[in-house]
């Protein structure tokens, strides 16, 4: 399966909301793909695997595997560009998930990506 799909599924497995709009879920998935076909595939596969429930434009995660900043977020020093906002970074924050590493993000964008803000 496409790496983007696997990483998107990993993100949906770790959503920290009881529910969120389809638009907000798509916003989260844009960190792995901007391709609407891949996004639809991620959402369809997540529903088939029992990761989410979809109802009238609302996504309800069924998992309670939240991102742990101590274990699932790593930092690296270097010259990076935030994958979410495009800002230059000297410290990149990465989601280190079983499906692969996602990032880099700045310190505020990593909180937005994980649903902490």
Walk me through this protein's architecture:
The protein has 117 residues and is α+β, with helices and mostly antiparallel strands. It has two domains: 3-61, Orthogonal Bundle (Arc Repressor Mutant, subunit A), CATH 1.10.10; 73-113. The chain is 33% helix and 30% strand. It has helices at residues 3-13, 22-29, 36-48, 107-113, and strands at residues 20-21, 52-55, 58-61, 73-81, 88-97, 100-105. The strands form two sheets. Strands 1-3-2 form a three-stranded antiparallel beta sheet. The chain has a three-stranded antiparallel beta sheet with strand order 4-5-6. Helix 1 packs across helix 3. The protein is globular, with a radius of gyration of 14 Å.
